[in-house]
Fold these 3 entries.
Entry 1:
Amino acid sequence: MEHNEYNVKIEAFEGPLDLLLHLINRLEIDIYDIPVAEITEQYLIFIHAMKELKLDIASEYLVMAATLLAIKSKMLLPKHEDESEEAFSYEDEEDPRDELVERLIEYKKFKEAAIEFKSLEKDRGLMYTKPPSDLSEFTKDTQIEKSDVDVSIYDMLAALQKLMRRKKLQKPLATRITRQEIPIEKRMAEIIDQLASGGRKRFQELFPVHDRGHIVVTFLAVLELMKRQEVHVEQEQNFAEIFVTSQKGAGKVGNR
Amino acid sequence: MEIVNWKGILESVLFAAGDEGLSLKQIATVLEVDEIKAQGIISEMQHEYEKDENRGILLVQIAGVFQLATKKEHAEYLKRLVESPGTSHLSQAALETLAIIAYKQPITRIEIEEIRGVKTERPLQTLASRALIKEVGRAEGAGRAYLYGTTKEFLDYFGLKNIAELPPLPEKIEDEEVQAEADLFFEKFNEL
Amino acid sequence: MEIVNWKGILESVLFAAGDEGLSLKQIATVLEVDEIKAQGIISEMQHEYEKDENRGILLVQIAGVFQLATKKEHAEYLKRLVESPGTSHLSQAALETLAIIAYKQPITRIEIEEIRGVKTERPLQTLASRALIKEVGRAEGAGRAYLYGTTKEFLDYFGLKNIAELPPLPEKIEDEEVQAEADLFFEKFNEL
């Protein structure tokens, strides 16, 4: 069952923090010592790529881009460490990255908790229950529950949830439709081939198939190839077209 | 040699199938054995349930399907269960029934039972006696079965102005969510 | 001397109660024993179900009630009876939102959005319609924003006895963890 290749979950990032964590993870960066210039560059490439694909970018992503640029410029300011009269105030000056790191770590905690929840959800899904039996034969017809109704709409919805969970089993045997997964390794090899024959390609040319799954896999394949330095992605200026070129000598795909 | 615990597996599937029960053919299919083998496992289990006094359930065959049921001699405890004041709110059965009626009205008892997979007379009775539901007409066709719907009391009780104010059904939302949210930045691609 | 077959009786009433389950108090009332005795019978049965491979069910305690459920290791057989899951899995957005609420309740939407860094209206709607969260009050201050908390269904959905059983929230993020972290973007489909 376990494929060693990446299988892509067709879901986007949960927001700029999620995207940053993703980049930090992929670039194998220490979260407590983020190279702001590098991460900002990667982040902006990502944003530009989205733009290139004419996709809507939620405003939160742009706010984060601005935040990164602001931190980057603060980091570039001279530190004045030599000026003794001011030294004391810079000793305990805050690192411009602190607030961002704090947010990332806070978010990461819950992201991990969500993974935990997911496994609990899956685990619970392995247990099947049965509906309460009809016990009307044990009651006299005249006897009706007399107590006051003391429920909210939540109780009703909760009952419906239980029912739906149970219903899983009561449908007839039938085949299930499974989604086709596209291995990222395969798509990476295709892209390399494509670039080998045609040299420099416009980024958009790499997306011939208008299928979500295919688009996401292609996107990830390009990112992975960038990381492995098998392709080079360039953009002459902001919002200009993005070009992808094969790096010389990198013919082999699939080995890490 | 690996021993498959047929009895344990059969108990699992029968338990989950509930009042709907399973035919011999279904049991054989699920267990991936032939029907003779399946019948053998069933008979063995029937025997064990019966003779073991620490068991509260039986494996019975009703109208061609096999299902689990409580032992008759425990009826008095079940009666006590029904009569126990335990809960001051509507039973799970009543709430499920109410939810189905609220979202699917007008609906017949048979249709409700198909969804719940269990007899639903009593929950209907309870709900009607509390004026949360009422008969709103008769279905077309042979039986001319009663159709049920929710009442004004139902709306009052749950603080709703009208039935359209019910929260949307989860699956619907989930679908929309998959469309609108899961693919935050790929959603516009179709327009290209 | 007449011996009462407590275990058989308990199995009967739990079977009948189905997924509504029974509280310790209800079990004691129906069996006409005190709660300590009831707990003793329950524990004994839990043990027997677990160790006996010819049994397909378990006695579990979820969301404050005891109920019978099939053994997890038989899920593959049960899946053969399934057409499609009745309820869809929660999206990543919904799971994150739920995690924040579970650990920080009561909490407002704005506070959740500050942690996630994105708008969270939709996940909140999904979670509420699935009865996993509810409004538990209003915050002090100008907006008097709604405060959210988790529900009993939340415990049921994740198979938790009570809120104290939540897995501890990671307090410190270790460096290695950053590397080893399961990258959701590349997470496998296999879990479906």
Entry 2:
Amino acid sequence: MTPITPEIIAKHGITPDEYSRIREILGRDPSFTELGVFSVMWSEHCSYKNSKLELKKFPTTGPRVLVKAGEENAGVIDIGDGWAIAFKMESHNHPSAVEPFQGAATGVGGIIRDIFTMGARPVFSMNSLRFGDIRGESAEARTNRRLFAGVVEGISHYGNCIGIPTIGGEVYFDDSYAGNPLVNVFCLGILRHDQIARGGAVGIGNPVFYVGAETGRDGLAGAAFASRELTEESKEDRPAVQVGDPFREKLLLEACLELLASGCVAGIQDMGAAGLTCSTCETASRGGTGVEIDLNLVPKRETGMTPYEILLSESQERMLVIVNKGEEDKVRAIFEKWDLPYAEVGVVNDDGMMRVREGDSVVVEIPARKLADDAPLYSREAAAKSLPAPLDLSKFPEADCAAALHSLLSHPSIASKRWVWSQYDHMVRLGATVLPGSDAAVFIVREADKILAASTDCNAIYCLQDPREGAKIAVAEAARNIACTGAVPLALTDNLNFGNPHKPENFLQIREAVEGMAEACRKFDTPVTGGNVSLYNESPAGAIDPTPTVGMVGIVEDAKHITTQFFKASGDAIILVGEPGDELGASHYLLAVHGVKAGPPPKLDYDKELAAQDAVRKLIRSGLVKSAHDCAEGGLAVALAESCMSGDTMLGATVKISPDSSRADVPLFNESQSRIIISVAASEAPSVLALLKKTGVPALQIGTVTAEEKLEIATAGKTFSWPLSGLLETWSTAIPSLMRG
Amino acid sequence: MKFAVLRFPGSNCDQDCVHALNAIPGAPADYVWHKDTSLDGFDAVVVPGGFSYGDYLRCGAIARFSPIMKSVKEFAASGGPVIGICNGFQILCESGLLPGALVRNRGLHFVCKHVSLRVENAASRFTNAATTGQILNIPIAHGEGCYFADDETLLRLQTNGQVLLRYCDAQGRTTDDVNPNGSRENIAGIRNEAGNVFGLMPHPERACDPLLGSTDGLAIFQSILQS
Amino acid sequence: MKALVTVMPKPSVLDPQGAAAAEAIRHHGLEKIGRVRIGKVIEIELPEPADEKTLHEIARDLLSNPVIEDYDLKISEI
Amino acid sequence: MKALVTVMPKPSVLDPQGAAAAEAIRHHGLEKIGRVRIGKVIEIELPEPADEKTLHEIARDLLSNPVIEDYDLKISEI
Ligand SMILES: Nc1ncnc2c1ncn2[C@@H]1O[C@H](COP(=O)(O)OP(=O)(O)O)[C@@H](O)[C@H]1O
Ligand SMILES: [Mg+2]
């Protein structure tokens, strides 16, 4: 027996207070194995001990919510006609920093399991990625390129192989992520209301089955690992990296869906972080029961594994299934059909204990509910709030705006992401009706005959400058992207990526972002269905910019409404819904051209935003809108350029904006919110403008779509004319040329 | 005409193929499990795309030994139409039902996109609903779709009119720029000598619905129905 | 016992992975290199001696594809 | 001269390819096999002798991924 010393306790990330609590729960000292079990269950990753009190601020209910956030592995939302969707976002930041390909791949595998555990067939994925700067020849830039390439390849490998299309996402590059990339993956599944599967160990005497990959010494204590800062040292004591096997997962997915349809299942739970430990104590806790398993029966890949290693292993592609007694043979037949390893490893009982045996000896005996749900919760100290100083524009002279547009379009965060999404199979399952490259992805879910729109969003510069405003805007932008496709937002999932919560300035960011996001969710009527918290995202250089990512889903009522961001025909009128705007704070223009993150982010006015989104959606539904694109990073100029060149055929535009400002960079590149560029047939323009006026939404015709391949913008007394071929070259080659070789 | 859509462990375009075929009048489709040994009652076989056996070892290398493949060989030998799409094409090559092999894309990346394909020979059971020289817009999605065969085989394919589809540009030119994977002579699809086995890397089942941007894939399935 | 099957792409077959590796190796400072080829190696543990003919069959029919690859089989005692 | 770098998955790391190949080999009639592992082999032609230290560096940093793989370097005369 390994003696429990203060060093060992500390090594497990357990504080002296927590240790006394463990002793209180057990009425004795824990064994070494039990200490390991507590350490993973009470890690931030599993218990959300530093963030739960904040997460309670999110709205989680609504008429469409069938399963609430936190109740099960993923929330479930009604989409009508007896159909529902389950979706969630999950991070795999730290594993991806150590091994980008496998880290990202297993992240995809994990989120997919969360979805089919709910009884839903996964139908599409998205991903939200952040890396350090990939430009230049420094060692750091090269590392960042390697991470970027590896992560994209890992996602592509896993998603393509399992046959779930990756239809959208986002990628940003910023120094703050050097050494600590963010890899947030999203998956959505479809199910009928009566197919919702639960993760509770119910039915005393029901057998407990283990199915899927054999357990090895993979990712030992990965949950604890995700709950620490990445230091040079942690790169050395790397836990054995988990390797994903998408082929196995595909079999597991099909077998589980068949199993759930068979009615043999009382409860089901995937083994994610903290593997067997988490799945046994959580199912027992949810079921209000106890679960007893025998480790000797667990299929293993390696010999000589200790109970500690088996319980904490994070081998991928495994599930725990609680089977209705008497149905064991049916269950075995399904596992055998799909050639999956499985074993009956235990039983549900009524004593509320998580009891783990190794043959005849009991190695773990812990009250399951206390372990799963009674982790200590902390409200950390938050620094005093300080608002960013107003932007002093005089410090940033107007740049050569003709060149500035090229700088923006070639900035990796804004440049075309085709290099990324062409590596993803986005067309499998016959759903991708709006391909990547427009605002939100639009997907036909064939089994339900429903059309969904989905988008991931977060502008971390805004969040750095003002986490509350930035988080609000993340929600607003996601909703706006969805509105631009003709859809109504339904609900969202989030992934809160922050630094070490023990640092008051970081905790302030968390609190501000959560409160901002919660408020925006209420305003946009999009409850939070679940999500993930990833803290301790720091490299030796400091914390990442706060990155509360949003993954939002909406529904398109009629295929006729589906709208894309590209201009459609020359002669069409270009209408700006919203005001020209003038906020340059926290803009990509300041970053890409002046090299600074400065000033407050643009202000979000909920009423204006909601009115603009509603108005555009109404116009789309009346069949008047040919294209709709929101103004985001890089402002009006970038949005117009994208509308000209991101479609199948290039179309030019001639635009005039009369600003209050004498500077051209303000009207061209400001990032004021609540703006959408639409194009409509010229003959419809007056009535569209009249309709907008009637609803009180500011709008004006700013120009015309032209057949001539150039973008011409007249503003502040100057006229800029960019040949589209040049803009396209800049925008489309930026990432491929950096990634060559 | 009843279509059998094979299901190997790791197939992932099986559902798409069944969906697309069932939407075509006169082309009902059903699944056939890899452990099955009979194709009785079916008039055509589709070997769908995906990652059979994870594409481990080589694409299609393990699937080739599935019980059902013996029946597929017999079915093909008796003249029944067999079409292999993407991973299905790889399986047919590995099985020896089609000549050549598919190797890693020269760009090393997986590529998913719409491509233009030139119909090289419309006098076949798989292309007769199109015209020779017609350009079809059908998506590809593969990491190992670079068609390779030795010179002698290529010459034979050419002489016998076995090359049915080539990657081309919008004007129908088969230049190297538009070759998405490095395939020899821009080959995207070939048939066997007897004319009843066809393999292609593009996914016609993904181009059968206007909401997906193209309906050119229908030409392939309709050709099978007509012959 | 162990069987070690090495499978290499035939010289006439495009080996873009090998070419990319060559590029990277040159970039790394080793400039004077010739061709680089990438193949795979399959290591099979044999608790009991296996028939060499069967092993050759497996190497030829399953582990390699003669259209594009050559294989080499070695049986070692350890 | 030639450098031959063999890269194998570390013993503790999951090797799904190897597991799938083992299954297929068993189906092929060779039932009594132990573990199967699949690695890659990189053959570098060296027109002139190369510094062994550099080769080790390349094998470790470029051709293998030390987090999940081990490499072995052999230099042969032919
Ligand atoms: N990591 C990614 N995976 C898949 N698609 C992506 C990814 N990153 C960006 N995209 C796609 O590229 C397009 C442009 O992305 P982005 O510039 O973030 O758009 P926006 O500013 O409109 O949200 C979108 O359609 C998006 O879905
Ligand atoms: Mg957008």
Entry 3:
Amino acid sequence: MSATETVEPTEDSSPEHTSPEEQVWLGLYRQLFRIRSFEERAYRLFMEGLVKGTSHLSLGQEAIAAGFGEAMRADDYTFATYRGHAHTLARGTPMTGVMGELLGRANGVCGGKGGSMHLTSVEHGAMGSYAIIGAHLPIANGAAWSAQVRGTGQVTVCFFGDGTTNIGAFHEALNLAKVWNLPVVFVCENNLYMEYTPIGDVTAVEHPAADRASAYGLESIIVDGNDPDVVFEVASTAIGRARDGGGPSLIEAKTYRHGGHSRADPGTYRPDEEVAEWRARDPVPTYRQRLRDRGVAEGALAAIETEAAADVDAATEAAKAAPPPAVEAAYTNVWADGGAAWRN
Amino acid sequence: MSATETVEPTEDSSPEHTSPEEQVWLGLYRQLFRIRSFEERAYRLFMEGLVKGTSHLSLGQEAIAAGFGEAMRADDYTFATYRGHAHTLARGTPMTGVMGELLGRANGVCGGKGGSMHLTSVEHGAMGSYAIIGAHLPIANGAAWSAQVRGTGQVTVCFFGDGTTNIGAFHEALNLAKVWNLPVVFVCENNLYMEYTPIGDVTAVEHPAADRASAYGLESIIVDGNDPDVVFEVASTAIGRARDGGGPSLIEAKTYRHGGHSRADPGTYRPDEEVAEWRARDPVPTYRQRLRDRGVAEGALAAIETEAAADVDAATEAAKAAPPPAVEAAYTNVWADGGAAWRN
Amino acid sequence: MAELITYRDAVARGLAQEMRRDPSVYFLGEDVAAAGGGFKATKGLFEEFGPERVRDTPISEEAILGAAMGAAMTGLKPVAEIMFSDFLATCWDLVAVEIPKTRYMTDGQVTLPLVIRTANGGGLRFGAQHSQAVENWAMAIPGLKVVAPSNPRDVIGLLAAAIRDPDPVMFFEQKSLYPTKGEVPDGEIVDELGVARTLRAGQDVTIVALASMVPRAMAAAEELDEIGISAEVIDLRCLVPLDTRTVVESVKRTSRLVTVEENPRLVGWGAEIVSIVGEECIWHLDGPLTRVTTPHIPLPSADALEDEFLPSVDRIVEATQKAVQ
Amino acid sequence: MAELITYRDAVARGLAQEMRRDPSVYFLGEDVAAAGGGFKATKGLFEEFGPERVRDTPISEEAILGAAMGAAMTGLKPVAEIMFSDFLATCWDLVAVEIPKTRYMTDGQVTLPLVIRTANGGGLRFGAQHSQAVENWAMAIPGLKVVAPSNPRDVIGLLAAAIRDPDPVMFFEQKSLYPTKGEVPDGEIVDELGVARTLRAGQDVTIVALASMVPRAMAAAEELDEIGISAEVIDLRCLVPLDTRTVVESVKRTSRLVTVEENPRLVGWGAEIVSIVGEECIWHLDGPLTRVTTPHIPLPSADALEDEFLPSVDRIVEATQKAVQ
Ligand SMILES: Cc1ncc(C[n+]2csc(CCOP(=O)(O)OP(=O)(O)O)c2C)c(N)n1
Ligand SMILES: Cc1ncc(C[n+]2csc(CCOP(=O)(O)OP(=O)(O)O)c2C)c(N)n1
Ligand SMILES: [Mg+2]
Ligand SMILES: [Mg+2]
């Protein structure tokens, strides 16, 4: 449905009247819908030439970021990839800064220096988006190690794709996480493709993450990454275990991206039936229907949708209105003293 | 026994009178004894200061190189590590060039440019010894790939240690080998330690290679790396399968080094009982006894020993007598044109 | 006869030229086969040469270069693609420690006829991890040849030379140049490595540039002409082998040197050119040895910032004026 | 009071000094704990600080630096050991692409107070894969500070400064210096990064050296004195921040520059020093800008060859004489 559809005012959708269970459902739907709305707008802005460079959308994959976002504690850490809009938003990062960053404006979360591939909001536990395949898995370990020795109970969640399971850093990170019993959850979003190549063509096992879990002394876990309830549950379990000193997990969530790998890619290398099959499992309308079937009031859902649409609009306007970064800004923040000097 | 012990001249030990089976046994013993003799001498020469730099001995681990050496075809490829004297000799590389290389002499297999850690004899299929942990596993794949597309039936055997299973290159290489169905045999010599740290302290699984085989769609294979017969058999099977298009194998051979990690290391971090237990399983005397028990003539063994001793002596003398490389030699063989020029 | 083609299409054409000629040339990389490469620079090769000779790989840069190296040791002539030059860092051990040293360490027993192609440099708003110009990293490593063409014709000629060369060659394609067009003659094109090209003669100053900086240096030279400064422009084309002769002779005539590079300020290849000139032509110099570089910062992604930091025509003009004063 | 200790022992002492002072300093690496490190440079730390703060790792260089980086982002001050600087190539993505760029890409949201210690350089007959001097690799990367002490006192003072610095610092220990001894004062030693030290005043030529080349440059200066050449010797100590002021002022007085580095010929740090001088002091120069380097070859292992190729006192003397002529 469109976010501007009329809301039935008769149903009572105020949070006070929802059960704790329903609050989780609404939280998940809110995540799903916000991410979807944001990325659809972002896509339009790319097509209008307002976003430069490249960008990688999670359209179709939102349930994973949503499920984990809801399961995490505010001070937990997220490590994401270049396909990280969803994961950054799921931690509560305001849309304005994210949209500003995509448009290369001064109001971006990274002041325009990062761009779509490097969204970060430390304030919200979004510890960065990394554009080199595999690199952030060892880094996520580091945050988990630090939480462990500082005794804060913080858990680190690290997202990556199926293709990433074939790079060396994956192996090194998983082994160390287990040996040091780190509070880290590795989440493989298996969307069946690396860029344009089916993951099965380049991988020795069928389930690129789950079939390797035993190589690190870990349990093999595969979940439906398009089902927010399932993701939320497995996320809660794994995060809880990590928080209680039970060590790392590796979760493979099966999913699919609706579009191409990145802005430039129409995704035509994928069989039509495959695309159709997965589109039928689109988490956003599917979950909406499920909640309706569970008796969640239309108004509660519509309110979420209206709010998300308004936020996307506001973020878009703010980003468009924001100036580009000042040229001098390029010389700031290389070093902790705020500057860029390499000589005296 | 010492190599100079008197040989009983009455027993008939000429090859014509040995069975094919016995010829394999004698071949294995010959490998074992030659490698042992060479390395004991090398150790002495290090201690005398004649070998500079560092060196890593296989004393105690010889059965693995021996078993594979005997199972390989002359045109097969070997890739070894800095602990590569054994594997280089096992392919039939004459001792003289190896000893010369250790002493940094002009007659060394690499003209003194490689040293102990980089022994290579392409003529004998010894495609190099690599000193960066894990680096040669992907390179071994390349040789196997080339043999595959050239259709030569050559098999590549790649040796490495237990500690090497934790570096990224291991993971990348194993996955690609399986995906491309390469004729390559990966042999993990698990001597229980990386340098000074027990492998169990830094590894998520008990058997660092075998417990990871399934992550690459491979069979889990563990063998007694101190038993030349067992190694020969598993080597023959794996090499045969690779030659017949059956793809890669990963073999974990349990073994132990008698000495420290490298020249500088006394190896005192290891429990005395552990050292004693493994010394009791020293493959050289153990296998000698086994062959005697099987009725192999003392003379046949003694002849091997005498020949090895003589070869070691000759190699030592030749290396000592050889001049150091000419200074101009340092400017040769950077490029295929023989030179080192980077400018006109 | 000549044709106007893009730098991007020149890559596929150069590769096809050599793959037709030499059946031992194999090509491998991520998404290079049916997909034709992340930059679509290798379209058509899979269709013409098939899955044996044009191979998709996992995302395993070390495995890619390892496969190339081992194959080169044993009879093939592999061309490996590393999608972005930034990713060379993930396989730097192969690039810097295995491939360039093995011939030497084995005293010539092993020869490594291989090419590593990669998309290098900035200008596409890809941010700090996908925009680096790292040809200086490769130049620092003894045992690597380093090539970086500035135009479609050179892409073909130098790629052919790289593939025929018996040594490992790092082939840097500047990604901002992919859509640019240039004239390419019909038939086989094969150049020689290590030969710079003087694109424009001049008396007052020698400007040495590479890859994407070449068109900018040429544009700057035109502008300088208008204000009475006659600039000689040299397209280096290769960093190793380095055509020092062309550079040194030019500077001896013009007495002034400006290098223009995409590398960040410290120890870019410009520093090497300056140092050679500073040692060998010191008595001929009539102005400060001047480098135009990207500042020593990671490249920011916003277009407003990125444009400011890659050496622009204006900055080249300004720096050259200063050098000539 | 002062004590004579080895460069090797100074490493452990510097680390212990900082670990005592700041409980957020953690140390990790391969065989660094009970074993005290491959070079025994960290002996005693495990005993004093225990297995929490002194951690053995698997042979996983990317995991080591990843752990350091993630920990630095979130409140610790990790010191990571990469046993040989050659192995930086196996984790170069972390060194060159993640660690130095993250503060910038996040516009200062992330700060990375970490140190990467590593044994650098040749002279021990370890061959081409264990002997590289790669401080120039690090210098080329915006966002890294680069330190290379030449004596035990500086090891402590600069290591302390590196650990206290809020930015990532590459700390290159020259492995041939480990057994060398030097005087070290009692009590805490803390230096400032980016301050070169003029070890010897002179009028005729400025010799700029680093790490293992410092004692050789000093010995060369003595010999040059005997033949009437008065050399000023500067120990750079840091490549980033770079004390250009000390170098430039010296060259303005002496009019001549010789750099002495272990890096192979092309784009070593000497080229950067030469380029800065060639741009900023060109009118003061009275001799060719001269670099003494290792030739552009992989380092051979045989002692007879290795000795020939690392810059020797003789080669420094000879090159300086030529520069002064
Ligand atoms: C080391 C490295 N190699 C290659 C790339 C180029 N690249 C970017 S995304 C991508 C595919 C990643 O696939 P996957 O891990 O499945 O993640 P997805 O994009 O499907 O979410 C590749 C190959 C890269 N960024 N880093
Ligand atoms: C990338 C890299 N890291 C570290 C080292 C230092 N190193 C040399 S041998 C060694 C231990 C290797 O252990 P293992 O693989 O078990 O082989 P072994 O020496 O026991 O035969 C280490 C850490 C290296 N050479 N390369
Ligand atoms: Mg994917
Ligand atoms: Mg071992």
